[in-house]
Amino acid sequence: MENELVNTTSEATFRHPVTEDGAAMWTMAKDSEVLDLNSSYSYLLWGRDFAQSSIMAEIDGRAAGYVTGYMRPDEPGTLMIWQVCVGADFQKRGLAAAMLDELAARTNADRLETTITADNAASNRLFQRFAERHEADCDREPLFTTAMYPDGHDTEYLYRIAPLGLDADLRSLNLAASRSES
After folding, report:
1. Rounded to whole angstroms, how far apart are CA atoms 7 and 43?
2. Would you say the C-alpha torsion 162, 149, 23, 47 has a positive or negative sign?
3. Confidence (pTM)
4. pLDDT digit string (tens) for 124-135?
5. What angle do CA 155, 80, 64 make, to 5 degrees?
6. Residues near 34 by Cβ (< 8 Å), separated by ≥ 6?
């Protein structure tokens, strides 16, 4: 069974989202019961304005997951990951890791950043393993503390993962090797 789950990730296809993916992205985020749910409008905009720095995964023609991100305007080589979401029917297959690797390769980012709350063990593990696969340093520090939020949101810790400066050929070889080891 475990091999079957791992192998289904190889059947995933990756593409940039389009506006029409906004509804599926919003639904997956809502159904996750873990992610901060943004307005449905924001997911539509994401498919329009930030598609080149985001990715959708499909398996058997169904939306299986997404990663939303953007290139930081003040640090053009930095890919900031906003959300990583895998649909309930597609979890425990390595899809989140595969999407992150694919997006990092497509954007040719030098550095990856994200924010995660301390209690989100799965996301903390996902990004620590991303750093390990890419042989990059992973620094963590508070970015937005509870006192900064008007609604008492938990502190978001900034992860800075760098350098990701492998050339494209080497990155592709490392990506293929990490997928075959999974």
Report:
1. 29
2. negative
3. 0.84
4. 999 999 999 999
5. 95
6. 120, 122
